[in-house]
């Protein structure tokens, strides 16, 4: 089943996300990819795949991806956020990660976790149903 995967990286971590995405291009190409603006533009060129680009992160892109989660339209988030530099939109970053916890969305903040998510048998198991919290 085709999933919707969001790909996001802060500037210092974009090279890691490009490297990771290239390594998993075959898997990613089977799914719908969405991204914040700058990340999406870079990935589209690097992967030569269609990536739906939302606004740039500081201009609301994180919030748009958060809205997808709230509408139950996102299956997975790969978000390489920068642990060493503050961002003007840190509250948006926190809100996006919070949405992942609220809605039980698999989220990877580094390459090792992202590797494990996309290579997990559950990732391609159409019978696996992510539990959706009932508040
Ligand atoms: O800031 C971001 C996520 O918080 C990423 O935004 P860009 O992809 O536009 O750089």
From TrEMBL:
- Give the Enzyme Commission number: 4.2.3.3
Q: Which of UniProt's keywords are assigned here?
A: Lyase
**Tagged with keyword Zinc-finger:** no
Q: What is this protein called?
A: Methylglyoxal synthase
PROSITE patterns noted in UniProt:
METHYLGLYOXAL_SYNTH (PS01335), MGS (PS51855)
Reaction(s) catalyzed by this protein? dihydroxyacetone phosphate = methylglyoxal + phosphate
**A Pfam family reported for this protein in Swiss-Prot or TrEMBL:** MGS
Q: Which family does it belong to?
A: Belongs to the methylglyoxal synthase family.
GO MF annotation terms? methylglyoxal synthase activity
- NCBIfam families named in the record: MGSA, PRK05234.1
Q: What class of enzyme is it?
A: lyase
What Gene3D superfamilies would the database entry show? Methylglyoxal synthase-like domain
A GO cellular component annotated for this chain's UniProt record is: cytosol
Instruction: Cite the InterPro entries for this sequence.
Output: Methylgl_synth, Methylglyoxal_synth_AS, MGS-like_dom, MGS-like_dom_sf
Where in this chain does the record put each MGS-like domain? 1-135
What is the purpose of this protein? Catalyzes the formation of methylglyoxal from dihydroxyacetone phosphate.
Q: Which organism is it from?
A: Paraglaciecola arctica BSs20135
- Give the binding site residues for substrate: 10, 14, 36-39, 56-57, 89
Q: Set out the biological process GO terms recorded for this chain's protein.
A: methylglyoxal biosynthetic process
Identify which residues the record assigns to the active site: 62
Origin superkingdom: Bacteria
